[in-house]
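Reading a protein record of the kind used here takes only a little practice. Think of the row as the fold of the chain written in a discrete alphabet. With that in mind, consider the following protein and its fold in token form:
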Amino acid sequence: MTMTLHVPGASPAEIARGLAAAYAVLARVGVTPLQAAEALFKRDGWAALGYPDGGQPSPIEFAAADAFDVAEEAAILACCAGWASVPDDANLRVLPDEAS
């Protein structure tokens, strides 16, 4: 599992600073990036279906999804510190590791 930060125009040092902020948020909450991303997928998928009965995330999953949201915001803010504006398409992603 790899966390990536996409911020157009950011330098490698700025991206690294942003990723460090994201990892720190998730570590404070006690969830891995994969747990947070899976919970986000479940929460957002449930919402996209119109919040049907059954299948909703557990309270722990809601907390993990919220942690991903906070980690993404922290990553983008840390990466773009001192910038006049933040690109609209900036985002944090969790990608599976490539098979060796």
In short: The mean pLDDT is 93. The CA atoms of residues 77 and 83 lie 9 Å apart. The helical segments are 12-29, 33-48, 59-79.
